[in-house]
Amino acid sequence: MRACPASGLLRMLARRRVRDEACKTLVALGDAALPVLDAALVDVDEDPRVRRQLPRTIAMFDPRRAASILTARLTEVDDGGGRYRILRALNRLVAEHPDLRLDRRPLFAGLEQTIGQAYRLLDWRLTLERGVAENDARSATTPAAPASGSLAP
């Protein structure tokens, strides 16, 4: 059995200079490349530079197959940035293929997961801020966080 060259091409997605050609070649491989891309999307050991490119790359395949993979993986991706990129790819698919219908269950589950994580992080921040307010000495060893929206160091 011949090995699929998609694995080697996958690494090339991390390199800006060859990324577009790697994407085109992966798409030209067709369905044989999709399982490799799908697995890499949730592989925490995969190079993050590669993982960032996968939703966009997957969206270049057959719209129905791509949408199926992306919606299924939405709740399995371990970071908010990855979920955001999946949502952007899904948005592009729907914009380019208005007749495409997405399964809403994983979309709502991903939304619930992301909102839940945002509230947990907010709760942690507020708890830390209350701790500093109760004991000002806690803030003396760490620099103050910049105001929201501030770019000052």
Summarize it.
This protein is mostly helical. The protein has helices at 6-12, 16-29, 34-41, 48-58, 63-73, 80-96, 104-134.
Strand segment tally: 0
Number of continuous helical runs = 7
**Average predicted local confidence, pLDDT:** 87
Class inferred from helices and paired strands: mainly alpha
Rounded to the nearest angstrom, the radius of gyration is 20 Å
Shape: elongated
Describe the largest sheet. none
Helix fraction bin: 55-70%
| pLDDT < 50 stretches | none
Order of helices and strands: HHHHHHH
> Separation of termini?
56 Å
Q: Which band does the percent of strand residues land in?
A: under 5%
Describe this entry's structure for a reader.
65% of the residues lie in helices and 0% in strands. It has 153 residues and is an all-alpha fold. Helix 1 (6-12) packs antiparallel against helix 2 and helix 3 (34-41) packs across helix 4. The relative contact order is 0.08.
Q: What key phrases describe this protein's structure?
A:
mainly alpha
Topology:
Layout: H1 6-12, H2 16-29, H3 34-41, H4 48-58, H5 63-73, H6 80-96, H7 104-134
